């Protein structure tokens, strides 16, 4: 398969640099070729999106919603083949990838319905015969910049609310999600989406992403990716006074209190830490355990790890696939080496016979490092979890909050009072009890505190606030 740009309803293949995409599960297998855009493609997309925006915003919410319903139906029809392609492109285990596709369909339907819901408030006037109200209006042209770890769901949770609000979109996906992005755009092209409403530009972040955020005449940027890139984008957008949203890294803690139901807790910890090979911004990477139950929890984790098999992403029996790329393999490998040197490995998943064929990293749980150690403080973005101990609730919360990140946090307990106290004091945008740090539902606001997020939220109704601005309207209808 070859990547393509979709600009103003036309498909085109840039004639410049190319990149071969290899399957992270079997690196000898070529999945396709990326054709990298240059700056001129960004400006062409900007013009197409600008030209389409007024007409798109003029359509009724119901009409825009109807097109989103069509997009959902087209995606549902093609879900399995797209899941397979994404799984081959970035290594997410096929069962999980299918789950992601189902979420994409639900997101489109959820936002399609928003076209028919109220989008403002009636505000009493202090004058007579005045009708005063607020309404949400679109921002204009929105740049959407997405990472590779959720190559379908993240783009859709940005594109769908942007479109229903009446914006047009220029989408730049991550390099190793670009074949999936091309196919997704092809699927959307089967619907009645007008030309130029959604534009796809494939290319390098430093070139195409940078041109989009620094030079193109866009009215807003929605970005998900690393904290480093996010901060650069935030600075660029603030300098241009355009709206931005940056969803970034995490170092999410799960706190296990002595009264937790350990048999139920352990599978949830494992899933939070190791599904998607730990490459979720909301993955559990710190497990903070009350001392009284440390040993029994460790024993249960050791037993559970026996079933946490790494395998080819197409293997439905595998718990996790490889990490996504050579770059990921190298970075995560450095943290695994650090863990082997400076921590104690208490559990590691069984070895995979064909490890040398792909970017396979066996999940590890380690202990024996201080709370300020790099393994406890830095985002690994791979299958590595660190255990820490706490004397009780207060110390556990202190450790949980001792992070520059604040995306997601979980508590495991049977005590309602502890649960409520944790929901009050945990410094994270998403706080959960007896649940994974990952897996927040799409109809609820998604985002973090501190360095995890700019100060907006995605998904749910919160996304509609980001992709629109408020207009206050008043009319004196009689003198
Ligand atoms: P990344 O920052 O390298 O890239 C993300 C996107 O930004 C890609 O499309 C990339 O091409 C583009 N980009 C890179 N440099 C750019 C620049 N200078 N200007 C504009 N765009 C640029 O991140 P990644 O490695 O693809 O993703 C992993 C990171 O994403 C992790 O830190 C993870 O925690 C984070 N993430 C966060 C969330 C969240 O919602 N908080 C969700 C998923 C992933």
Question: Your description of this structure?
Answer:
Helix content is 39%, strand content 22%. It is of the alpha/beta class. It has two domains: 5-248 and 453-476, Aldehyde Dehydrogenase, Chain A, domain 1 (3-Layer(aba) Sandwich), CATH 3.40.605; 252-441, Aldehyde Dehydrogenase, Chain A, domain 2 (3-Layer(aba) Sandwich). The strands form six sheets. Strands 14-15-16-13-12-18-19 form a seven-stranded mixed β-sheet, with helices on both faces. A hairpin with a 2-residue loop joins strand 3 and strand 4 (26-35). Nicotinamide-adenine-dinucleotide binds next to helix 7 and helix 8. The site of nicotinamide-adenine-dinucleotide has 29 residues, from helix 7 and helix 8.
Task: Summarize, please.
This is Probable aldehyde dehydrogenase. Its EC number is 1.2.1.-. It contains 15 helices and 21 strands.
What's the overall geometry?
Answer: globular
Give me the CATH fold name of the largest domain. Answer: Aldehyde Dehydrogenase, Chain A, domain 1
Domain count: the total is: 2
Estimate the helix proportion, in percent.
25-40%
Small-molecule components bound: nicotinamide-adenine-dinucleotide
Question: If helices are DSSP runs of H or I spanning 4 or more residues, what is the number of helices?
Answer: 15
Query: How many beta-strand segments?
Result: 21
| Largest β sheet strand count, sense and barrel closure | 7 strands, mixed
CATH architecture descriptor text of the largest domain: 3-Layer(aba) Sandwich
What's the CATH class of the largest domain, please? Alpha Beta
Low-pLDDT regions: none
Distance between the termini: 66 Å
Mean pLDDT over the residues: 97
Helix/strand/pairing class, anyone?
Answer: alpha/beta
CATH homologous superfamily annotation of the largest domain: Aldehyde Dehydrogenase, Chain A, domain 1
Radius of gyration: 23 Å
Q: Main sheet: which strands, in order across?
A: 14-15-16-13-12-18-19
Strand content: 15-25%
EC number: 1.2.1.-
Domain Aldehyde dehydrogenase: 11-472
Enzyme class: oxidoreductase
Protein name: Probable aldehyde dehydrogenase
């Amino acid at each position: 398969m070859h990547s393509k740009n979709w600009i103003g309803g036309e498909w085109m293949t840039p004639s410049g640099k190319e990149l071969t995409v290899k399957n992270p599960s079997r690196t000898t297998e070529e999945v396709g070729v990326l054709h990298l855009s240059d700056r001129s493609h960004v400006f062409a997309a900007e013009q197409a999106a600008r030209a389409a925006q007024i007409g798109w915003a003029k359509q009724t919410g119901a009409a825009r919603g109807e097109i989103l319903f069509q997009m959902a139906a087209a995606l549902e029809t093609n879900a399995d083949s797209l899941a397979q392609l994404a799984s081959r492109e970035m290594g997410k285990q096929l069962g999980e990838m299918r789950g992601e596709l189902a979420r994409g369909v639900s997101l489109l339907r959820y936002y399609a319905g928003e076209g028919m819901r109220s989008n403002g408030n009636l505000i009493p006037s202090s004058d007579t015969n005045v009708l005063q109200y607020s309404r949400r209006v679109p921002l204009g042209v929105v740049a959407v910049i997405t990472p590779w770890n959720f190559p379908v769901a993240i783009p859709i949770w940005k594109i769908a609310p942007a479109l229903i609000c009446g914006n047009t979109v220029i989408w730049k996906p991550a390099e190793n999600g670009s074949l999936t992005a091309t196919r997704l755009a092809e699927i959307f092209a089967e619907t009645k989406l007008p030309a130029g409403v959604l534009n796809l530009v494939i290319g390098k972040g430093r070139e195409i992403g940078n041109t989009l955020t620094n030079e193109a005449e866009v009215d807003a940027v929605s970005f998900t990716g690393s904290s480093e890139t996010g901060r650069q984008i935030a600075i660029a957008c603030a300098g241009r006074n355009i709206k931005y949203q940056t969803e970034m890294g995490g170092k999410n803690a799960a706190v296990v209190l002595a009264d937790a139901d350990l048999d139920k807790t352990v599978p949830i910890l494992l899933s939070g830490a190791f599904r998607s090979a730990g490459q979720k911004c909301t993955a559990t990477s710190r497990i903070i355990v009350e001392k009284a139950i440390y040993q029994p929890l460790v024993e249960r984790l050791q037993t559970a790890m026996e079933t946490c098999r790494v395998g080819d992403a197409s293997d439905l029996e595998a718990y996790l696939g490889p990490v996504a790329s050579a770059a990921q393999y190298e970075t995560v490998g450095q943290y695994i080496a650090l863990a082997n040197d400076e921590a104690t490995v208490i559990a590691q998943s069984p070895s995979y016979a064909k490890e040398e064929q792909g970017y396979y990293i066996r999940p590890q749980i380690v202990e024996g490092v201080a709370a300020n150690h790099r393994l406890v403080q830095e985002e690994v973005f791979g299958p590595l979890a660190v255990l820490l101990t706490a004397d009780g609730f207060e110390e556990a919360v202190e450790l949980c909050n001792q992070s520059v990140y604040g995306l997601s946090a979980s508590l495991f307990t049977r005590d309602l009072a502890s649960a409520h106290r944790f929901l009050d004091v945990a410094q994270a945008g998403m706080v959960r009890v007896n649940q994974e740090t990952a897996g927040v539902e799409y109809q609820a606001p998604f985002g973090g505190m501190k360095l995890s997020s700019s100060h907006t939220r995605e998904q749910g109704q919160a996304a509609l606030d980001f992709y629109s601005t408020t207009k206050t309207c008043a009319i004196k209808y009689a003198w």
